Amino acid sequence: MEISWHTKTFSLLFFFIFSRLAPSKACHPVDKEALLDFKHRITDDPSKLLLSWTASSDCCASWEGVACDASGRVVDVSRPGLVSDNDFVEDTYMSGTLSPSLGNLSSLQLLDLSNLKDLKGPIPQELGKLSKLTHLFLNTNKLTGSIPITLRYFSQLKKIYLSDNFLSGDVPPSVMKSWTSVSELGLSGNALSGSIPPPIGKLVMITKLDLHGNNFTGSIPTSIGNLKNLKYLDLSENQIAGSIPQSIGGLAALELLYLNQITSQEDTIYDIWTWVYDILSFIRKQIPSSFVNLLNLQTLDLSRNRLSGQLPPQLEYQTGSGIKSFRLMLAKTGIEGELPHWLSSSSISQLDLSSNALTGKLPWWIGNMTRLSFLNLSNNGFHSSIPVEFKNLSLLMDLDIHSNKFSGRLNVIFSKEVQDR
Any bridge partners for residue 233, and if so which? Predict the structure, then answer.
């Protein structure tokens, strides 16, 4: 999952306002030379993102996407390929490589070359010299090679997105250990391998961690339980094995949790939810501060894990009516049996139980799940007609029930009531 436009727009707006404090000095020659070298390594710029970058003009005064401080040092370089305006979204691209000279921008705080689609080659080790950098966005390009160990010198880094490239190799533990000020880290959609470094537990300020879609192996480090500010965690679509650590139960602020496709022969769905149930039970008894609840959780995705057993009643505490909306994704997990009655009073808005071994009738009380907008029960063993109460699902927009043994007419599905707007 990528950085939201609201978050990114706020960051860029800050630097835009900052840049309007007109610099009293012309662009520093070292910075100008570095940026011209970057332009020189761009082989195709069909959208003319760098058209204004000329040797005869002042990079602080007239170069688009460049902002300077009062001393004439460049603090912001923003030439993203996806630009959002009030009325439209402009999608552009740029071909070429990243210049090592970018490391000479000693006052740079924000570097945004995201979504340019065709930036290739490695991330220059020289970027590690940018000791004042707080925001680095290089996502959605074709960058290759490994994550440079020199990035450990980013002592002031707040947000870094290297997602959707072709980066490979291990994540250097020394790099992870040094990013103690990072609040958002996106490395998804690459070919990164090795284990998730245990020093990930040092990222105590982080709120969003997205490592999905890589080749990480090994187990989830127990140190991940140290990330008390974490709201979004996605470790899905890797080759992670073993049990889910109980320390995840200490992530008090967690709202979205994606752990699908974790290889394990041992865990049952009851095992995974034991610590959730224990935590919720202890909460009612005022547990010690070392045990924290997951009551802020809004999304749970354990799809494509090797689980077994029935849907546990403990989930009722997680999906209860006190939560406005909850997304529960348990596709291809091996769960079995009938749908439990507690689902009828849940706040689930999106439910995916597809490709499991669920059986029995589709219960009448499914009509009580009036918050449902997405329901996927396909590839199971349900055998019954569609209950007439189905018409009560007025918010339902996406339904998939194929590959079951349903019988009867479909008019119940198409005659569902429309909620007044």
Answer: 209, 257
Nearest to residue 311, comparing CAs of 328, 287, 326?
A: 328
Q: Are 104 and 128 in contact, with CB atoms under 8 Å apart?
A: no
pLDDT digits (tens, 9 = 90+) for 235-255: 988 988 877 777 887 787 888
Domain spanning 254-264+298-421, CATH class: alpha beta
Q: How much is the average pLDDT of 60-81?
A: 94
Which residues make Cβ contacts (< 8 Å) with residue 22, sequence separation at least 6?
Answer: none
Distance CA 333, CA 261 (A): 9
Six-digit token pair at 21? Answer: 């404090």
Among candidates 214, 250, 240, which has minimal Cα distance to 304? 240
Q: How many CB atoms lie within 10 A of CB 22?
A: 9
How confident is residue 64, by pLDDT bands cut at 50, 70 and 90? very high
Per-domain residue ranges for the chain? 254-264+298-421
3-state secondary structure of 337: strand
Strands (E), 89-190: 89-91, 94-97, 110-112, 117-122, 135-137, 142-145, 159-161, 166-169, 184-186
CA-closest candidate to residue 185, choices 369, 2, 415, 389:
2
DSSP 312: P
Burial-class residue 402 by CB neighbours within 10 Å (0-12, 13-18, 19+): exposed
Beta strands in 264-419 (DSSP E): 299-301, 326-329, 336-337, 348-352, 357-360, 374-376, 381-382, 398-400
Q: Which residues contact 338 (CB under 8 A, 6 or more apart)?
A: 310, 358, 359, 360, 361, 363
Residue 328 and residue 371: Cα distance in Å, rounded? Answer: 13
> Whole-angstrom Cα distance, residue 249 to residue 281?
13
Instruction: Say if pTM beats, i.e. exceeds, 0.85.
Output: no
pLDDT digits (tens, 9 = 90+) for 254-269: 888 887 656 544 444 4
H helices present in 253-400, as ranges:
269-284, 315-318
Above 70 in pLDDT, residue 174? Answer: yes
Question: What residues have CB less than 8 Å from 13, skipping those under 6 apart?
Answer: none
Query: CA nearest 49: which of 107, 118, 136?
Result: 118
End-to-end alpha carbon distance in the chain? 31
Rounded CA gap, 89 and 81, in Å?
Answer: 10
Positive or negative: CA dihedral 273, 274, 280, 283: negative
